[in-house]
Each structure stands twice: as C-alpha cells, then as structure tokens.
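Supplementary Methods, section 5.1.

A reviewer requested that the exact input to the structure prediction be made available. We therefore reproduce it here, unchanged from the version used in the analyses.
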Amino acid sequence: MTGAASGALAAKAGLIGAWRLQDCVLTYPDGTVSRPYGDDPNGVIMYTPDGWMSCHMKGGRKGEAKPDDAPLLVYTGYFGPYSMQDDGKTVVHHVKGSSEAMVAGDQVRNYVLNGKELILSAEMAGIGAVLTWAR
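The structure derived from this sequence is encoded token-by-token as follows.
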C-alpha cells in the first residue's frame, strides 16, 4: 500500500510530519556498539500525507583535531515513497535515491510512537540500528 492510503494510515498512527534525530545506535554482530553520528547528531525524517518520505542525518566534525574515538563527518540521506504495514508497527521506505549503497530498495523499519518520540529500528547486513526521533 503506497501513496494516499499509506498516508492515511501514517496519519492515523501519528507518523506524518517532521522528526528531529536524537540518537542513532548501531549494534554489530560481535556486540560492539557505536554512534556513527556522534553524541549530538543532526538530522530529520519527514513523512508526507501523500506517501513520500525523506531522511537526512549528519554528525561529526570536519577539519578539526579530534581524539581517536571521535566520529568523522558522516552524512546519510535518502528518499522515496513509503508504505505502512497493517500490523501497526512496520513502515517500509521504498528508496528511490540514497547517499549510501547499503540504503537501497525496500528498507523495513519497525516503529514505536511514544508521545512526541518516534523510535525506528532495523537490521541491515547483520547490524542492528535503533534511531530515536522527536517532534
């Protein structure tokens, strides 16, 4: 289900609109945890009523001296239509364009809405991702 029908489900779920990135945590198969956008990430994800989404995330510092564990400048952006699953906990981003080869095709995201907080989680190539967004 794409387009207006997904937009209606997203509106009912409370997904429509813009969300600011609060945190991004990746967990690797060996148990290593990282925050690729650092402790103060910058980003936005938007869902439109007509079934489109766009996501942009940035973190790190470019051109500054940094300790060995500081993140490099990292940017990820992608966009496309989205569809809502009838289970009330899954949204699929149908990626049409992306800055990252790993973020392509249909990207399944589990979501939890808690007031003004949106938590999206996924697994990509064995790496677990949990992203927290806020209004």
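The CA atoms of residues 93 and 107 lie 5 Å apart. These observations are discussed further in the main text.
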